[in-house]
Automatic annotation (TrEMBL):
Superkingdom of the organism of origin: Bacteria
This protein's name: Flavoprotein
SUPFAM superfamilies cross-referenced by the UniProt entry: FAD/NAD(P)-binding domain (SSF51905)
Species in which this protein is naturally found: Niveispirillum cyanobacteriorum
Keyword line: Oxidoreductase
Alphabetized InterPro entries for the sequence: Auxin_biosynth/cation_transpt, FAD/NAD-bd_sf
Record's signal peptide: none
Gene Ontology terms for molecular function: flavin adenine dinucleotide binding; monooxygenase activity
Length: 467
């Protein structure tokens, strides 16, 4: 019997903010979504960092199609300028959305996708491939099952795949053996996990927003719990990106986070190890010794927090034909737009179905997973992604191509640290005063009505600027 594609739903993997938004857009277009969520509740990853306050206000965090479903139910939108914690994002927006009858009926909790292929096709077979439905192998409370789909949107995020502490991208020597003293991501230092860290010598490894959040919470913990000692190890010697755009950041809370970290670094209340490339953890009596490639050591470390970012889990996609950026593991077309080697300001051209597709027709990576290892993803980006992908699936190619996104920027390149010269190569130098851009070349491109760009690429690498 021949399988008719339209008989199957569009399966969305993951009920995070982008997966749920995708479901809302599909319903809005009269298409049938089915959301498969590994956890027993929605937004499992955000709930894990529920104690962290986000830096984008509510106005950027609510998807338009989701809002259109929620409002008739009597839901009251939070004040647009408020900054929710992760827990509030779930309580005040994502859980109410997931409980709307139209979504709840199409949401399967405790359904973990473990593999995807196409019915009757392995990865090699080509003829008529696009007309075969997808088959998703799913681990459910009642055992393994296969679910068929007309198209698949992978919105499964990256939070469950933390990068190791090792500076080479591999676990450092002894990292696995030291697991009982190492936590990955952002522990709840002032709440649930307080007792583990109070009065301890804590080393934070990493330079992103997660590390910043952990360090600032540790500083508070140290004020309340004497004996708490903070060390911070960063692979780079240039902390401008970590300290961020300050007042120049269009997201005030993101700028403030970097500025607060900078004040903490200057305060002398923590020991900063810049250019520290972690290579080994060695067990000592009741502590660890952490060694860098250059031979420096940090001794008497009792707890380590590794906040070195995440990477996408590609194992369940093994049987699909993927087009990935070689180093970011983002979708191939997105790589040059978001490469953190080039895009110091996090400015990203609007993008949609075209950039999120793969050589496997009908399969799209959306949400933070579409960025692979790049750290600059915003929910607002994901909402525009799924609007475009769903328009494409509905056959509205004009709407799919018309990607529009006004993203809040950061003026990272305009920041000069004391004793750290401004990078003269940064797109020709600093942006002119008052320009909403990270550097001069970016400002010039935007003034000419173009999308702007990051810093110019080193010779032989990808282009950094919008054509
Ligand atoms: C600490 C922190 C702060 C952030 N702050 C902001 C901010 O201020 N503003 C902003 O715009 N963005 C912010 N982000 C970035 C980003 O918007 C969030 O990470 C957001 O949660 C990404 O949404 P998502 O839907 O793509 O994926 P996720 O939220 O990661 O959701 C993925 C879902 O997929 C499920 N899943 C995973 N694997 C499977 C599987 N195999 N089968 C079925 N289900 C699966 C997970 O359980 C999870 O529920 C922040 C990120 C972090 C980590």
């Amino acid at each position: 019997m021949e399988l008719v594609m339209s008989a199957f739903p569009v399966v969305i993997i993951g009920a995070g903010p982008v997966g749920l938004a995708a479901a809302a857009h599909l319903l809005n277009r009269g298409l049938e979504p089915l959301v498969l969520e590994a956890s027993d509740d929605v937004a499992a990853h955000i709930r894990d960092w529920g104690h962290v306050r986000v830096f984008s206000p509510w106005q950027y965090n609510i998807d338009k199609a989701a809002r259109a479903l929620l409002e008739p139910s009597g839901w009251i939108a939070p004040a647009p300028e408020g900054l929710p914690t992760g827990a509030e994002l779930v309580e005040l927006y994502l859980r109410p959305l997931s409980r709307l009858p139209s979504i709840a009926a199409r949401l399967r909790l405790s359904h973990r996708v473990t593999a995807i292929s196409r019915v009757g096709f392995d990865k090699v077979k080509s003829a008529d491939r696009a007309s075969a439905p997808f088959v998703l192998r799913v681990s459910t409370p009642t055992g393994e099952a296969d679910i068929l789909a007309s198209a698949v949107l992978d919105a499964s995020g990256t939070w469950s795949q933390p990068n190791p502490a090792g500076a080479d991208g591999l676990p450092a020597i002894g990292e696995v053996a030291a697991a009982d003293r190492i936590a990955y991501r952002i522990p709840d230092l002032l709440g649930r996990d307080r007792m583990r860290y109070a009065g301890q010598h804590v080393l934070v490894i990493g330079a992103g927003h997660s590390a910043a959040n952990a360090l600032l919470d540790l500083a508070q913990l140290a004020e309340q719990s004497p004996g708490t000692r903070i060390s911070w190890a960063v692979r780079s010697t240039d902390l401008r990106r970590t300290f961020g755009g300050g007042d120049a950041d269009a997201l005030a809370a993101r700028g403030a986070l970097g500025s607060a970290l900078r004040r903490l670094a200057d305060s002398g209340h923590m020991e900063l190890y810049a250019g520290f490339k972690t290579v080994a953890f060695q067990q000592a009596t009741d502590s660890l010794t952490v060694t860098a490639r250059d031979g420096r050591v940090i001794t008497d470390v009792e707890q380590v927090i590794v906040a070195t970012g995440q990477r996408p889990d590609l194992t369940m996609l093994r049987e699909l034909r993927l087009g990935l950026d070689p180093w970011l593991e983002s979708t191939a077309a997105l790589g040059p737009l978001i490469d953190p080697n080039l895009h110091s300001c996090g400015t990203v051209r609007p993008h949609g179905a075209k950039e999120l597709s793969h050589p496997e027709p009908g399969f799209f990576t959306v949400g933070i997973k579409s960025y692979g290892r790049a750290p600059t993803f915003l929910m607002a980006t994901g909402y525009e992604q799924v609007r475009s992908v769903v328009a494409f699936l509905a056959g509205d190619l004009a709407a799919a191509a018309e990607v529009q996104l006004e993203l809040p920027e950061t003026g990272v390149c305009s920041v000069s640290l004391a004793g750290s010269p401004v990078n003269a190569d940064c797109c020709g130098g600093l942006a002119p005063a008052g320009a909403d851009a990270c550097c001069e070349q970016d400002a010039t491109a935007k003034a000419a009505g173009e999308a702007g760009c990051g810093c110019p690429p080193p010779t032989g690498t990808k282009t950094g600027c919008a054509a």
